[in-house]
Write a structure and sequence with these properties.
This protein is an alpha+beta fold. The chain contains seven helices and twelve strands. Strand 11 and strand 12 form a beta hairpin.
Length: about 220
């Protein structure tokens, strides 16, 4: 561990740990493989950014990192296991008893979605919700891709779109399936309407604990 250049940060790290795990912070006791770390990078980047505290157990106890290789694996996860590659800033802090904790800061992605590569070679995008990394809804991915295009979103509301907004004003949220059945339209048509309204900023998504639902943005 002598090769890690660390700065004093006992009180700073203790303050972060006191926050617990949340939408913008995750504890990692140890770095086991780049693919797992890429999940967290993808989830934070697809939300509003966040940080990993490496060398901290789930209960908040400091264990310290075991090897300078942990820094390499984090950087490998960001550059080789994320698409597009992400920039992650890693800082080492010396804590009580000489234990070293790594803070890996992940900024919000300038272009979403950010995918992470699974061990089987497949790519999936994640989204940070509270203290969990949740697989992003397919319609979220389509909306983010639409936002990346240079195409201006101009449209007048159809009857189906107006009905969706009126329903959300009254009931607060719905799912793609419920909207599709309620409006008597195909899944493709329902998804296209939602993608356009999300891309234009009219609609958004919330996670209810079991699934993503569509809501109207304030």
């Amino acid at each position: 561990m002598k090769d890690i250049k660390a700065i004093k940060g006992k009180y700073y790290i203790n303050r972060l740990i006191a926050e617990g795990e949340h939408e913008h912070q995750d504890f990692k006791f140890a770095i086991t493989d780049a693919a797992k770390i890429a999940h967290s990078i993808s989830a934070f980047a697809n939300n509003d950014g966040g940080r990993l505290l490496v060398g901290v157990k789930d209960n908040g106890n400091i264990a310290g990192v075991r090897s300078e290789e942990d820094i390499f694996v984090i950087e490998q996860a960001a550059s080789m296991y994320c698409s597009p590659p992400q920039q992650v800033e890693v800082t080492a802090f010396v804590c009580e008893g000489g234990a070293i904790v790594l803070r890996a800061e992940i900024p919000k992605a300038s272009r979403r979605p950010v995918y992470s590569r699974e061990t089987d070679g497949k790519w999936r995008a994640f989204y940070r919700v509270k203290d969990e990394n949740i697989a992003a809804h397919p319609v979220m991915l389509k909306a983010w891709e639409r936002m990346n295009s240079d195409e201006e979103v101009f449209f007048s509301l159809s009857e189906a779109e107006s009905a969706l907004l009126a329903y959300l004003d009254e009931w607060g949220m719905t799912t793609v399936e419920d909207y599709m059945h309620g409006a008597h339209i195909s899944r493709a048509a329902a998804e296209e309407i939602i993608v356009r309204l999300v891309a234009s900023g009219v609609l958004g998504f919330v996670y209810t604990g079991s699934e993503f639902k569509i809501v109207r943005n304030n």
